[in-house]
Amino acid sequence: MTSCVPLPPGERPADAPPPHRVAVLALDGVIPFELGIPARILGGALTSDGWPLYDVRVCSLDGSPVRTSDGFSVVPEHGPEELSAADTVVVPPTANMRALADEGSLAALAGEALARIGPGARVVSICNGSYALAAAGLLDGRPATTHWWEAAHFRTLHPHVLLQEDVLFVDDGDVLTSAGAAAGVDLCLHLVRRDHGSATANAVARRCVVPPWRDGGQAQYIERPVPEPTSTTTAPTRAWALERLDRPLTLAELAGHARMSVRTFTRRFRDEAGTTPGQWLTAQRVELAKQLLETSDLTVDHIASRTGFGSGNSLRQHMRALVGVSPAAYRRTFHLTSKEKEFAQ
Asked: Where are the domains of the chain?
């Protein structure tokens, strides 16, 4: 397979559900890598019959060519009318976004563009595309993130945004923001997972040869002293724990496996994974439970046992806290048919 987006031959069947329409807004100075992420990830999500689940369209403010940050221009096939027709609008970063924000012209530019978005549409930013969302007033009083390099400046310019600069992405329902470059891949995979379940997102990730899941709460790779190659890390212990999620793993047991004191292990774990060992374990157990709910007919109690929650009530509590729905509701939405299971392999 040579492409992330293998398309089936022929016309889409008339009775097939229409794909989710995505408009990617290319502004002057757009960064090419991030501009291509939505088409590469969302465009790679397919039905069990091989039809695209998303219709991704790149547009500009006036339908004209757009200069990129890398010495060439792109020619979007669509104009601003796509913004009002889209179910999801994505704003990638530009090389001059911060300058536009400083000079005050971004507010009018972003306000005019994003005012076209229809009611009920999702709005997504990648990297410093968050400046455009903030300038249009979409982030006031809401949690959001941006590239860590821009965090201090962003907070000064937009003090009413609840900025979380140490995470990969923030999902606040109809408004989602991500940190730099690769975090845009994480956020688009999260959208696929949220819309169509883990199996579909994992299939996209496999075709594009990227990690299928990094929790949005994981720390950005903020500039820090790099440990010496001989330094002990928690990575082997995390891999070891993933094979034993059905067991009641304790912090002392994890630290013992890593051959560290509990205090050192906890500090190093947070530095590397961006969260505490307990929070990380819970997230991994919920992720495994989601996969089992999608791909098996096991009872909730059995899945709770397989994932280390012990009881169905405990699993329900953690699913509601992290996913927002009960196991039963999640299964009704994302349980795969036998044909879909075969396609996801």
From this structure: 20-208, 226-345
Q: Any idea which fold 226-345 has?
A: Arc Repressor Mutant, subunit A (1.10.10)
Strand partners, 66: 74
Per the CB < 8 A criterion, the answer to whether 161 and 154 are in contact is yes
Give, in order, the Cα–Cα distances in Å from 32 to each of 50, 115, 255: 27, 25, 43
Note the pTM of the prediction, 2 decimals. Answer: 0.71
Which residues share a beta bridge with 144? 163
pLDDT in tens, 287-310: 899 989 988 899 999 999 999 999
What angle, rounded to 10 degrees, do the helices at 198-208 and 277-295 form?
100
Q: What are phi and psi of 236, to 5 degrees?
A: -60, -35
Across the range 35-54, mean pLDDT stands at 92
CATH numeric code, 20-208: 3.40.50.880
Calpha distance 158→163 (Å, rounded): 9
| pLDDT value at 180 more than 70 | yes
Q: What secondary structure does DSSP assign to 168-192, as a single string?
A: SEEE-SSEEEE-STHHHHHHHHHHH
Question: DSSP string of 40-59?
Answer: HHGGG-B-TTS-BSEEEEEE
Q: Which of 322, 344, 315 is nearest to 246 (CA)?
A: 315
Confidence at residue 257, expressed as pLDDT on a 0 to 100 scale: 94
For the chain, the average pLDDT equals: 86
